[in-house]
Write a structure and sequence with these properties.
Elements (H helix, E strand, L loop, with lengths): L6 E6 L6 E5 L2 H6 L5 E2 L3 E3 L2 E8 L11 E9 L9 E12 L4 E7 L5 E4 L4 E9 H5 L11 E9 L18 E6 L10 E2 L3 E3 L2 E8 L10 E8 L11 E3 L1 E2 L6 E3 L5 E9 H7 L5 E6 L3
Antiparallel strand pairs: 1-8, 2-11, 3-5, 4-5, 5-6, 6-10, 7-8, 7-9, 7-11, 12-21, 13-15, 14-15, 15-16, 16-20, 17-19, 18-21
């Protein structure tokens, strides 16, 4: 139960989303000297609820001189042992004159927990009786009034994400000596090596690829299985044969290369027999 100092009141055009109840001939209700009126049960957020109204205030709390209104969870015997329901809720009173709804909530907009020992929450001091009974305010109009509730149940889904950063991950490297290089006529692949928890390999195109086709040796660093990475997941490498740096690998592409890594003329002059390709990979 919240004292008036911890309550925020504002007005809006929209009616309560989940439930409202109208009391006609409110003065006759008062004559019955009923202390507490309970609304019908309604459903919101997968749970059963009802509103509890004290038209002359809840004198067991600090509601003397006020209208008191509470939200109460129902059918708790059907809930699991040690149940708990976390909510954000607002209670309402209709302003008939301006066709608006007075919205009452906790000023800190904090979530509220309903559980076995706390099945009712609300406001001892929803509105002062003086304000409520003054017809010029529109809350009690032609002896009628309307109250309501809006309840949002917070249900954690268990979904989440982990970002793990490693400042200096272990390096992995491979030196690939290619024998009978002059006999290669298509893309060739090194054995796989591990760096940063990922598997990599070197791809060599002896006749060149892309803008290097026919005039250069093309060298690729391939993330093995890169096409199977989940969406938005990436790996990066820092050095492939000392030339390719700071490239990000996502689901696509999973290769990076130098199509004109070295000209074929220079290669034939300098590496006639056993060209060597060295790659170092590092993955964050």
């Amino acid at each position: 139960m919240s004292p008036g100092g911890h309550v925020t009141r504002s007005k809006r055009d929209l009616p309560p989303m989940h439930y409202s109840f109208k009391i006609e001939s409110f003065s006759l209700l008062l004559k019955t000297k009923v202390e507490k009126y309970e609304s019908d049960v309604f459903e919101a957020g997968g749970y059963k609820w009802r509103l509890c109204l004290y038209p002359n205030g809840n004198t067991k709390g600090i509601g003397k001189g006020f209208v008191s209104l509470y939200l109460q969870i129902e059918n708790t015997s059907n809930l699991r042992h040690r149940w708990e329901v976390t909510t954000e809720f607002k209670l309402f009173v209709r302003d008939h004159i301006n066709d608006k709804y007075l919205t009452v909530r906790e000023s800190d907009a904090s979530v509220k927990r309903f559980h076995e020992k706390k099945t009712e929450r609300g406001f001892d001091q929803l509105l002062s009786l003086q304000t409520f009974n003054d017809a010029s305010n529109g809350y009690l109009f032609n002896d009628c009034c309307v109250f309501g509730a809006e309840i949002f149940v917070i249900k954690p889904t268990g979904k989440g994400e982990l970002l793990s950063m490693v400042k200096k991950p272990a390096n992995g490297s491979l030196t690939w000596k290619i024998r009978a290089f002059s006999k290669l006529d298509r893309m060739s692949y090194s054995k796989a090596f591990t760096a940063g928890g990922r598997s990599w390999r070197i791809d060599v195109s002896p006749e060149g690829y892309g803008d290097g086709k026919g005039n250069s040796l093309s060298v690729f660093l391939e993330l093995v299985g890169g096409g199977k990475l989940p969406p938005k997941q990436t790996s990066s490498k820092e050095n492939c044969v000392g030339r390719i740096q700071a490239t990000s690998f996502g689901p696509t592409p999973w290769q990076t290369c130098r199509t004109n890594f070295v000209t074929l003329v220079y290669l034939l002059q300098s590496y006639t027999w056993f060209p060597q390709v060295h790659a170092t990979g590092r993955s964050p």
